[in-house]
Specification:
The structure holds two protein chains of two kinds. Chain A is an all-alpha fold. Chain A has one domain (about 30-50, about 85-290): MetI-like fold (Orthogonal Bundle), CATH 1.10.3720.10. In chain A, about 70% of the residues lie in helices and about 0% in strands. Chain A is built from eleven helices and no strands. Chain A has helices at about 15-25, 30-50, 85-120, 120-135, 140-150, 155-180, 185-190, 195-230, 245-250, 260-285, 290. Chain B has 16 helices and 21 strands. Chain B has helices at about 1-25, 55-60, 110-125, 155-160, 170, 230-240, 250-260, 290-300, 305-310, 340-350, 375-390, 400-410, 425-430, 430-435, 455-465, 470-485, and strands at about 35-40, 65-70, 75, 80-85, 90-95, 135-140, 145-150, 195-200, 205-210, 220-225, 245-250, 265, 275-280, 315-320, 360-365, 390-395, 415-420, 490-495, 500-505, 505, 525. In chain B, the strands form six sheets. In chain B, strands 14-18-13-17-15-16 form a six-stranded mixed β-sheet. Chain B has a four-stranded mixed β-sheet with strand order 1-10-9-8. The radius of gyration of chain B is 24 Å and the shape is globular. Chain B starts with a helix and ends with a strand. Classes of the chains: A mainly alpha, B alpha+beta. Chains A and B meet through helix 5 of A and helix 11 and strand 16 of B.
């Protein structure tokens, strides 16, 4: 008699990203948000080569309403520049500023939060006092001061937004690090001689990443709104077309020409909505309680 | 013959005035309060040591000046009953009104005039107004003789509006610095209105001077100058009827909207002496812009009609030379640089800047004054695609605030900049400063920041400044302007669309060359 031995196969553990996606795709709102972002991203990247109109070119009479002329299908701004061309190419600068600012926010936030949460003691005290200092400054005002000091260019605007908005991420990262550093697998790592650097960046950080990714996503939306706010106040780079610049320049014509401000405003709204929906979806996706249902 | 024609135009003028009064208004009404809305906030109220609209509007009500000007640039008696310019132009004799008093009841004498001339000469930022004054003689209480080192025809205009306020020597002569004198916020003048309350940044309340030296005037009991934080709120207040008069309005979209309000009148009269010019300035020391052909090419590439009609809704008007068209010294026959892109491109080719592979010849930075979008930022944004048609790549350089811009342009750290400079009535006061070689003063804004220097222009301006014959003077200015326009240190663009918006109830709205910067003693408000 032969015993047919069927070896017991351990199922290969599902990759966390795949697990997350499994939850994410069951959320219609999140999928809608993702779709919005993909469309906006694709239009921003390849749109300008399809609709090749210089957004700074004066193409028609100033303040022409939408659907009046095929030359400028969505109307013109106060100079007679094509709004559609501006909307298509303006996403590049706006998204770039949003992404860069979010990256800066998350980088500073994780760095400060990681050291504070891991080392605690005087390191934590010093870093948290610094964080509180930045936290009590009114963010928009502080960003305005920075942009005013260093002249409005995309780099300065992205840096300013990053510099004023990292404290929340830092606090979040610190809380995660404080929680995880006491867990058994960290002690295990330490007992086999892992150094602090390895523990922070290779052991704790990957396990703290889920909430940070959610927060980073939402930060992109906040950064885009920030950029729009600064532009509304006239603090934007006049040489780069962005949705914010369109709003800032068209602001004083709002009573006479709604489309000049409304159309780029709708684009910003859609982008931020997309980012928020995706953020919400990620939050659910990374939530272990929801994952195994 | 000249006399006869003058008489004829004079009588025609009188007839037209009578007709307009017959058409519009009844007898002036006495009493009432006129509310003037303004976004300009004065630091103090002494125009002897401070230029600018904010101080000049209340200043012209509080302080009387020796002369005033009508709408046709003719001097009229005011505190001086009569005046006489000597044949060589080197002295002006003022005969003051007898019985004129300061608001504190003390009589006005020729010594106050002498003191005021000295104070203005030493402290006012417009140095050229009284720089040639050598002495002021006071043979009796009512006669002042102002002596000049050389003939100085600009002096008559410099004795009007808020430029030569007659200060009470018994208050200002106490040895304190007039720029920071406590009386600057608690003024004692001799004009039609006296200060009742001054809350900086909020309002200025002026009340009728009961002892005003012109009998029966002023008609109004009070003038309130109310400060608004921005143009939008001022426009809304005007639309709602909260203010009776809003001078110095330039926002063309707002003007177009307020024009539809049946209760309001809107006029661009009253700004001839201000002569506000919006221009594109070149740094003539810049490597590329030092070539006259490049500057001329840029001037040819600008479509002033588009700016004036499309961007400014037809409210502003094109400017083609240093002196605005409303001035008797304007030179309308100089080269106007009418739009000609072919010529612009040809000039740039000639200058040795061929179009490169990327379709451009070179890149220039363009500055503009922040916070004055329609005249400055919008025109700068227009120039970017427009100059590209001549192969010039323009990079806008935004300034976060006025001091930053002033530091860049004043410090000659710029390629091109949009700028706004006022003529201020006589060319000696507001025009010479932009072109004289010896007024290239780094660090000083609205000096010759273009570093432009042409000795022929200097000589002509100098001759014009001392020429007492008006026709000859105009000819010197014409020649100087022809040279300046050809050298093109600036590309002239447009006159600011200054407008006064006022309620139809307001009678005798100020339309002389100085507008609201002149005494409002004949303004009244119908009930």
């Amino acid at each position: 008699m032969t015993i047919a031995e069927t070896p017991h196969m351990e199922p290969r553990p599902e990759h966390p990203a795949a697990q997350a996606w499994r939850v994410f795709r069951t959320r219609p709102a999140a999928l809608f948000g993702l779709l919005l972002l993909v469309v906006i991203g694709v239009v921003s990247i390849i749109g300008p080569s399809v609709y090749a109109v210089d957004p700074f070119e004066i193409v028609w009479a100033p303040l022409t309403a939408p659907f009046q002329t095929p030359t400028a299908p969505l109307g013109t701004d106060y100079l007679g520049r094509d709004i559609l061309a501006g909307l298509i190419i303006g996403g590049r600068a706006t998204l770039l500023v949003g992404l860069t600012a979010a990256l800066i926010t998350v980088s500073i936030g994780i760095f400060i939060g990681a050291f504070s949460g891991y080392y605690q003691g005087w390191v934590d005290d010093v870093f948290m006092r610094i964080t509180e200092f930045f936290q009590v400054l009114p963010p928009l005002l502080f960003a305005m001061v920075l942009v005013t000091l260093f002249s409005p260019s995309l780099v300065v605007i992205a840096l300013s937004i990053g510099i004023v908005s990292w404290p929340a991420t830092a606090r979040l990262a610190r809380a995660e690090f404080m929680r995880i550093r006491g867990l058994e697998y960290v002690s295990a790592g330490r007992s086999i001689g892992a150094r602090n650097g390895r523990l922070i960046w290779r052991v704790i950080l990957p396990n703290a990443l889920a909430p940070l990714i959610v927060s980073a996503t939402l930060t992109i939306g906040i950064a885009i709104l920030f950029e729009a706010g600064l532009s509304f106040l006239g603090l934007s780079d006049p040489n780069v077309m962005s949705w914010g610049l369109m709003i800032g320049g068209g602001r004083q014509y709002i009573l006479d020409a709604w489309w000049v401000v409304t159309l780029p405003g709708v684009m910003i709204f859609m982008t931020v909505l997309g980012v928020s929906l995706v953020g919400d979806g990620l939050n659910d996706a990374f939530n272990p309680k929801l994952r195994d249902r | 013959m000249i006399k006869l024609s003058r008489l004829l135009t004079g009588s025609a003028l009188i007839a037209s005035i009578f007709m307009s009064t017959a058409l519009f208004a009844q007898e002036p009404v006495k009493g009432g309060t006129l509310v003037i809305g303004s976004t300009q906030k004065p630091r103090h109220l002494n125009p002897a040591v401070q230029s600018g609209i904010a101080t000049a509007v209340p200043g012209a009500q509080i302080f009387a000046t020796p002369l005033r000007f009508d709408a046709e640039w003719n001097p009229q008696p005011y505190l001086a009953e009569s005046w006489k310019v000597s044949d060589d132009g080197k002295s002006i004799t003022l005969q003051l009104r007898a019985g004129a008093k300061f608001h504190d009841g003390k009589p006005i004498t020729s010594r106050d005039v002498a003191f005021s001339v000295k104070t203005v000469k030493e402290n006012h930022p417009f140095k050229t107004m009284f720089a040639p004054v050598s002495s002021v003689d006071t043979p009796d209480d009512l006669t002042a003789i102002i002596n000049f080192e050389s003939a100085h025809p600009a002096a008559l205009l410099a004795m009007s509006s808020a430029l030569l306020p007659i200060l009470p020597e018994h208050i200002y002569g106490d040895g304190q610095d007039p720029k920071s004198h406590p009386a600057n916020n608690n003024t004692v003048g001799s004009g039609p209105f006296m200060l009742s309350e001054f809350k900086p940044g909020e309002h200025i309340i002026l009340k009728k001077n009961p002892d005003y030296f012109i009998d029966g005037q002023p008609y109004l009991d009070r003038i309130i100058i109310k400060n608004y934080k921005d143009v939008t709120s001022l426009v809304l207040a005007t639309d709602k009827g909260e203010v009776d008069m809003a001078p110095f309005m330039t926002s063309t979209r707002d003007l177009a909207r307020l024009k539809k309000n049946d209760d309001l009148e809107i006029t661009n009269k009253g700004y001839a002496a201000v002569g506000p010019v919006n221009w594109l300035a070149f740094n003539t020391k810049h490597d590329i812009l030092k070539d006259k052909k490049v500057r001329q090419a840029i001037a040819y590439a600008i479509d002033r009609d588009f700016i004036v009609n499309a961007l400014h809704g037809g409210f502003s008007s094109p400017v083609t030379g240093p002196i605005v068209s409303g001035s008797p010294f304007a030179a309308p026959d100089v080269n106007t640089y009418a739009l000609d892109l072919d010529k612009a491109n040809a000039l740039l080719d000639e200058a040795g800047y061929p179009v490169g592979d990327d379709g451009t010849r070179f890149t220039l930075k363009l500055d503009y004054i922040p916070g004055f979008a329609e005249m400055q930022k919008t025109v700068a944004e227009y120039l970017r695609p427009q100059l590209k048609k001549a192969g010039i790549n323009v990079e806008l350089r935004a300034s976060p605030d006025f001091p930053t811009w002033a530091k860049r342009v004043g410090g000659h750290d710029f390629d091109m900049s949009m700028d706004i400079v006022f003529n201020w009535g006589d060319p000696v006061i507001g025009v010479h400063r932009t072109y004289l070689c010896n007024n290239i003063r780094p660090g000083v804004i609205w000096s010759n920041t273009q570093s432009y220097c042409n000795e022929k222009v200097d000589a002509l301006l100098e001759q014009a400044g001392v020429e007492t014959d008006k026709a000859k003077r105009a000819e010197f200015y014409r020649q100087a302007q022809a040279l300046i326009v050809d050298d093109a240190p600036l590309a002239f663009i447009n006159e600011l669309p200054y407008h006064t918006i006022y309620n139809k109830k307001v009678g005798n709205a100020p339309v002389t060359i100085w507008g609201t910067m002149a005494p409002l003693d004949d303004v009244y408000k119908a009930q």
